[in-house]
Amino acid sequence: MTEPENGRFPVTVVIPVRNEISSIGPLLTEVFSQRPAAVVVVDAGSTDGTRQALRTMQEAYAELRVIEVDKAYPGEGRNLGSAAAETPWVVYIDGGTHPHAGWLAALWEAVAGTEHAVAYGYYVSEIKSLVARWFTLAVLPPARAVPGGLMRNHFIACSIVRKAAWETIGGFPATRAAEDRIFMLKLVTMSVVEAPDAVITWIGPQSWGSLWRRQVMLAEHSARAGRERDWHWPTLRYWLLGAMVLLLLPVWVSMPMVVAGWLLRTERRLQRHRLEADLRERHRGDRLGAGAVLLVTDLAMYVGWARRWLCRDLAPIAVAPSPRTVP
To answer: What is the spatial distance between Cα 53 and Cα 30, in angstroms, rounded to a whole number?
Structure first.
């Protein structure tokens, strides 16, 4: 393994946060234990005590820099943190996640001494409720086997990026959702590598209410970002096909066909996770629960898409002129 310079890896860990009082302390403890050269936390108007906690933590961590803004989307927060980085590499992780031991070392090992522009790690879902399990089964992309372990789809909150690459791309777009996908699609033209040993735990929705709110928000703002092709159009085509079956065939034929299509779609989602031991084994209610998550997610997509067109367009939040660095 490539050893860090002067006992620390030459990277700046950038963390955009808002109202993370319950998780920010443990997260910073875990991040600093992995020896980054610096950490920049961008607080986007927290009102739950996160901002005060960060100011206190600066007394314990000399390498911690806090930037305060009144409002910022996650991508804008990452832009501010990246601009403030004084190292050639920037590592992205989000508030509320949990980096596993060796996470930063594995990311650094993947790019040290190479021409790579970015490396992505592997993320797993924290499952503390049935809804979280069903969401993971139904919505989360499956893991795939790669040399050295497993990988899911590339995730910006578990990545290391050359600052020069971030500058070349022009940073993240000022959108509430899809900013990570747009940014990563631009990185595809550069040299990309995967680091399956760099693992974090990501916390998704744990209740029906949080699932609904999350999916509506993502649907609305992904549409505002112009990424309907990723989710909206495929879902619309699926349900248009179902509507055609209902209209063209007798009810006693069409209804069983629509239900069978929904069950088949659910089963295919379940089978995708056969490489993950904790998800491969079926639990009672998994099929019904995962199917319900798919229905809720589809309905949330339509609601969010409608909000994109019925509500006034949201202007990007301009944060660059007014960040405040806490001394």
So the answer is: 16
